[in-house]
Amino acid sequence: MIIKNKKKQFAFVIPVYNHAGTVAQVVKDAQDLGFPVFVVDDGSTDNTYDAIKDIADIQILRHPQNQGKGAAILTGFAAASAVADWAITIDADGQHYPQDANKLIQAIPKNSRPIIVGARAGMEGKHIPWTSSFGRKFSNFWVRTSGCPKISDSQSGFRIYPLPEALNLKTKARRFQFEVEILVHAHRSGIPVIESPIRVHYNPEGGRISHFRPFVDFCRNSSTFTRLIFRRIFFLK
User: Fold this and answer.
1) Contact 75, 161 (CB under 8 A)
2) Alpha-carbon dihedral angle through residues 58, 64, 65, 71, given to the nearest 10 degrees
3) How far apart are CA 175 and CA 221, in angstroms?
4) CA dist 81 to 104, 122, 213, Å?
5) How do 159-162 and 115-120 pair as beta strands?
6) Could you say which of 6, 30, 179, 182 has the lowest number of CB atoms within 10 Å?
7) Domains plus CATH for the chain?
């Protein structure tokens, strides 16, 4: 358990759902940076909990049932806000290099409280799943249409969020759509959105587990963007 004493500047928030094979290494690599680590097990049905339960000096938060990535991130934010001023979110599937958090930290301007998005390099190669490539372009276009400044990787899960500001944004989505919706709400609330390049690892031979469902999540994305654009047209926040 993490002892809540003097606030640290940063804490990791790692949402996880059925990534038993990769989450432990992600957690351990994140720990190497010396920040508190919060892992939110979003109702996993595999051995995710067993893979991390014996790792010392982390806090594990568990949802009895799967509620969605956005819900897991918000649970992590609420816990992390008690010990840190910023939350570093990173996916549990092993595609990111936790050490790149230092690059994102360095991108924070002095006297500013932005959201920093890790823009994944090399996302156009043949080894990148078509769902990731298409979803990224689709999301980027509609985030821009919804009123957010142009961004190259609106679906990246490796980010830094200011706390408690991120908790106070009026997001409604609680699944994958949360990560695009919060960018729009942040911009509308005067919170800058800044990108910084990061590395990404995709195994050409497969093995990466993705919970993105093209048809279902396309419909959910469309619903979220329709709502955001409607509110933009009618000057609603």
Assistant:
1) no
2) -50
3) 10
4) 19, 33, 31
5) antiparallel
6) 6
7) 8-233 (3.90.550.10)
Residue 136 burial (CB count, 10 A): 19
Residue located via tokens 């958090």: 101
* Beta sheet of 115-120, edge-to-edge order: 59-63, 37-42, 8-16, 84-89, 159-162, 115-120, 193-198
CB neighbours of 95 closer than 8 A, spacing ≥ 6? 120, 200, 201, 202, 208
Per the DSSP assignment, residues forming a β-bridge with 61 are 40
Per-residue pLDDT of the chain (237 residues; tens, 9 = 90+): 444 445 579 999 999 999 999 999 999 999 999 999 999 999 999 999 999 999 999 999 999 999 999 999 999 999 999 999 999 999 999 999 999 999 999 999 999 999 999 999 865 555 555 455 556 666 777 677 767 778 899 889 999 999 999 999 989 988 878 998 999 899 989 999 999 999 998 764 444 455 554 545 555 566 666 666 666 556 555
**Structure tokens belonging to residue 59:** 């806090």
Pick the closest to residue 119 from 165, 158, 162, 81 (CA basis): 158
- How many CA atoms are closer than 13 Å to the CA of 46, on its beta-carbon side? 12
